[in-house]
Amino acid sequence: MPVYLWTVPMFHCNGRCLIWGLAAQGGTNICLRKVTPKGIYDNIALHNVTHMGGSPTVLNMIVNSPESDRRPLPHKVEVITGGSPPPPQILFNMEEMGFRVIHLYGLTETYGPGTYMLMET
């Protein structure tokens, strides 16, 4: 079953749509009160997170986090990002760290992602 770690506000289209789809599959939603790299890594380890969302700013926080905040990932974690495109170096570093980044495009005011792009290797 999927386990999704929330690092974005649930008022976005992602929150209005994904939370119900995940529940319909019997998945688990994990919500962070405060988004920090340590909190992200700790929750991935504690709850065996399979998916998470994060703005390019969150991805930048993860990539530039101190080694003391990081933990080994139990498996590749799928990361959905949107808004402005993350810099290529951030995408590359996220992949090197064990994350798989998918960039989505959609409108907050509508259902959700309209298109997506996988990183080309």
What labels would you give this structure?
Rossmann fold; 25% strand; six-stranded mixed β-sheet; 33% helix; alpha/beta; 121 residues; single chain
Give an overview of the whole structure.
By secondary structure, this protein is of the alpha/beta class. It has a single domain, classed as Rossmann fold, CATH 3.40.50. Helix content is about 35%, strand content about 25%. The protein has four helices and six strands, in the order E-H-E-H-E-H-E-H-E-E. It has helices at about 15-25, 35-45, 55-65, 90-95; strands spanning about 5, 30, 50-55, 75-80, 100-105, 115-120. Strands 2-1-3-4-5-6 form a six-stranded mixed beta sheet, with helices on both faces. Helix 3 packs across helix 4 (about 90-95). It starts with a strand and ends with a strand. Keywords: ATP-binding, Ligase, Nucleotide-binding. It is found in: Cytoplasm, Cytosol. InterPro entries: AMP-dep_synth/lig_dom, ANL_N_sf.
